[in-house]
User: What shape does this take?
Amino acid sequence: MASEKITLCSSRIAEKKLKIAVAESATAGWLASEFALVPESGEIFLGGIVCYDVSTKEELFAIPKNVIDEFSPESAEVTRLLAERLNRYFKCDIAIAVTGLTSTGGSETPEKPVGTMFIHIKLPDNKYCAHREVFEGSPEEIIKQTVSRTGELLCGYIDAM
Assistant: This one.
């Protein structure tokens, strides 16, 4: 069963007859699976791409190496490019990209600790939402919080349309 926030925003997306797709790194397909579980999935969800490894971001999404080197694979800058370039694969009205750090061994720093997640939502008419948040807990708990927060943000933006 999908989370309450994803279920709620999915019904609102369906009411507006919009289509959604996702590009995921740290959440590794969890967000896509949530959208696949909602009653409106066949109406709204086009699909998703898991781009966990940096090479996938570079090769599939043509994220320039200099951008990754300067900002890291888990950054607002890379997340925005993933959302912007998702329409190469899906004719979506809403593109969501998520990157971040759920465990040690990535690009964590004191300013960007484990738990830092980046959510970028590209809405119709080229409107953008960029969100950075630091969650606490196990990798699974961080992912669950990220998915929930994504649904919450998306509902807010859908309601404002």
In short: The two ends are 27 Å apart (CA to CA). The chain has one domain: 4-160. The chain has a mean pLDDT of 95. The chain has seven helices and five strands.
